[in-house]
Amino acid sequence: MNLTLPWGPLALGAALLLGAAPAHAQQDLMQQLDHLTGDSLRRELTVATFKGTRVINGQSIETPGAGSLLFLISHRFGTLNSGAYNFFGLDQATIRLGLEYGLTDRLAVGVGRSSLEKTFDGFGKYRLLRQGSGPGALPVSVTLFASAALSSVRFEPQPERTTTSRLTYTYQALLARKFSSALSVQLMPTLVHRNYVDLRRDQNNVWALGLAARQKLTKRLALTGEYYYLLPGATADSFRNSLALGFDIETGGHVFQLHVTNSQGMIEKFFIPQTTGNFLNGDIFFGFNVSRAFQLRGRP
Amino acid sequence: MQHLLLLVGLLGWLAHRPAPAPAKYFTRTGTISFFSATPIEDISARNQQVAAVVDTQTGQVAFTVLMKEFKFPKPLMQDHFNENYVESEKYPKALFSGRLVDFQAGALAAASPQPVQVEGDLTIHGVTQRVRVPGTLQLQNNHLLVNAKFVIAPADYRIEIPLLVRAHIAKTVDVTVALACDPLP
């Protein structure tokens, strides 16, 4: 004889007898929910690789985000080794005032004016690729950057220079990876093209490779460093590589960046091909960047 | 021919058989929003990717909330929320696992929203607290509508608010839950 047992009801009875703890059922429901949502298979974009749109002097992969307007004040004092007479550099100052705006979450444009050589600059920045987590996500973020800088300083003696000869362009690919919530590293292959150079031996095209890193010390305080290596050539022979070390301090809608650097200028055309300061000899400019974000329109 | 008649008859019987009421309801597009009001600044955010399962037989309820899906009007605020307050990379999800209190399986037959109490463990920022929250349940066009409003204090979940912005962020935050769950086959 074939004996078929009603397994279903038996199992239920057994479960009841064993006192199916509600906690287990609860866990099952949570597991079922995880299974249904497939959250473990989800792709997420990495956010806040750097605190600001600048690492220190140079650009980071970050953009302001759609509808956000950033007002940036960048300031460098004179060199620390200029002596007590100059109050160790605090008597002198160069400044750049800038505005940048996020047209979309990926695309940003900006303008600025540096006191150094009375220079106007404008740039576009596009977040091409974004690092993420989950299956198929990219390991790095890539942002493209292009800028034009126009020096408006009067040249004495005459002849006056043409507008074309006053222009310098910079092209950068910014590649960054946020290794953990604390550590981010960025590589910046860079080309600075100068329409006009004084001497035949000077380079119109200056190539450089930048390296930057951010290490968080606390949730709102981070240590930053940035170094631009000039590829061998006439510029590398007569100028120095730009080095900057600093802190990012975040408070509500502001990011304060305090740093020391051997570069005086705050845009690529100055700090990449024209850095003369020797960091180890005390040609160190103390400076800060302050940014304030204003939301001009809601996000779509 | 006889077979065909049999088949039609069988199908007819299957069609007319009363469908068993689904036990579980599920959504992954539920909404949770929160609101912090201070004299200086109002802060609000909305998450429309909330996943939830409600078992109307046992009265058990489970929620998972991806913290990064909270959308703020200001991108900077959203970054700060994820980076500094809820630490979304360390604690990507908020969870709720609980049970309807004194729930009767038949109570959902009524067309109007039924007031309920739900009790369970709410986990935010890696901290679990026992909570009891009032809400309503309503069965409408085969959807289970879940609504709840309650208050949570960031401090209970060890979410630190620095002194400098303490005046901008309320001590307690109003949370609103609105879900429309589909029957789970």
What does this 3D model show about the protein?
The complex is a heterodimer of chains A (300) and B (185). Chain A has helices at 7-17, 22-37, 234-238, 268-271, and strands at residues 44-45, 68-79, 93-102, 107-114, 119-129, 132-133, 141-151, 167-178, 183-194, 205-216, 221-230, 242-251, 254-261, 285-295. With 300 residues, chain A is mainly beta. Chain A contains four helices and 14 strands. Chain B is mainly β. In chain B, strand 1 and strand 2 form a beta hairpin. The radius of gyration of chain B is 21 Å and the shape is elongated. Classes of the chains: A mainly beta (300), B mainly beta (185). At the A-B interface, helix 2 of A face strand 2, strand 3, helix 2 and strand 4 of B.
Feature tags:
A: 300 residues; Porin; two-stranded antiparallel sheet; 4 helices; 14 strands; elongated; B: 185 residues; mainly beta; Lipocalin; eight-stranded antiparallel beta barrel; 2 helices; 8 strands; 48% strand
Structural class of chain A: mainly beta
Strand fraction of chain B equals over 45%
CATH topology (fold) name of chain B:
Lipocalin
- State the fourth-level CATH superfamily of chain A: monomeric porin ompg
**Number of β-strand runs of chain A:** 14
- Assembly state here? heterodimer
Residue stretches of chain A low in confidence (pLDDT < 50, at least 5 long) are 10-21
CATH class of chain A: Mainly Beta
User: Largest interface: which pair?
Assistant: A-B, 34 and 41 residues
Roughly how much helix do the residues of chain B carry, as a percent range?
Answer: 10-25%
The value of Rg of chain A in angstroms is 27 Å
Largest sheet of chain B: 8 strands, antiparallel, barrel
CATH architecture classification name of chain B? Beta Barrel
CATH architecture of chain A: Beta Barrel
